[in-house]
Amino acid sequence: MNDLNHPIYKFYNAILQGSILIFSAALVYFAFVYYPQAIRQYESGNIPAQKPFVAPVSAVFQKLPIETDAYRITYEKDTNSYYVIISGNTLDQYVINQNGARLALMSALSSESLCTYNVVYVSSGNLQVPEQYKASDCR
Hints:
The protein is 44% helix and 14% strand. The chain is of the alpha+beta class.
């Protein structure tokens, strides 16, 4: 395979030259077109607003039941329990909404911990939630 006229070397050489051409064109585009345009947008203050993955959670005193798009918190006097119905299509959305619901419930109860309360977490959809996320953080 030391013959440089072999067809595989011609094919390899064409691919190598093509990839160098493509990467050089990409470098020129980003260096002289995209990057200066992005800098002009940031300098003028035209930064596109992106929708955050997690909505901000604020701790405000409210009476129960507390209802948001992410969760619903109710209190049952008969069982002396707080029921938290949490929405979320995936486990990470469920956990984020559960943390927001915990913060809202702690704020509503003016408590630093929910260990002394009977809190039941339930998914509003058909999401299979592992037991570690259904149980409280108290041990």
